[in-house]
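Q: Sequence in, structure out?
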Amino acid sequence: MWTLVQDLHRAEFTRHALTVAEHGVGVALTAFAPGSQLRGEVWQLATPVVQDITLGGRGVLLMPTFHWTGHPLLSDLPGRPLTVTCPAGPGLPLPADGASGADQALAAVLGRTRAAMLFLLAEEHTTSGLARRLAVSNATASAHAAALRGAGLIATVRAGRSVLHRRTDLGSLLARRHG
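A: Exactly. Output:
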């Protein structure tokens, strides 16, 4: 059961991280507390009572939970980040019917070869191993790896005469969203 709970929490984290990345913190906070608004440094909540919380750059710790179904619970201690505990969404993977469109969207941004490389790098591969799997030259595989590494999507380490590549957490987040 613990593995399922971890998977659900990971899916929730991914969902909210993508919301922040794509639409900003204000939209993410509104998703956590429907009816709320972020205006500058003030988060206006309407549930269960109307209240304004000045964030002032101290941060917000969002804690989705599958064990609470009521209104958001707030811990607003001086000098500490605002902690918001609220019901988690479904936490389920995206439906398979949208997967092919998502793959095409990722390929449109990264390019087909880089998108395929990102998916392959769920497991560690050498540059020549990637070149073989992607049917490109070693130089081309190396150039694509450098671009993905520069974007923070993969990490590269030297192991003797070989170079090993693997997805970073950010690369895994992107691949999970579009895979």
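The helical segments are 2-23, 25-32, 99-110, 112-120, 127-134, 138-150, 169-178.
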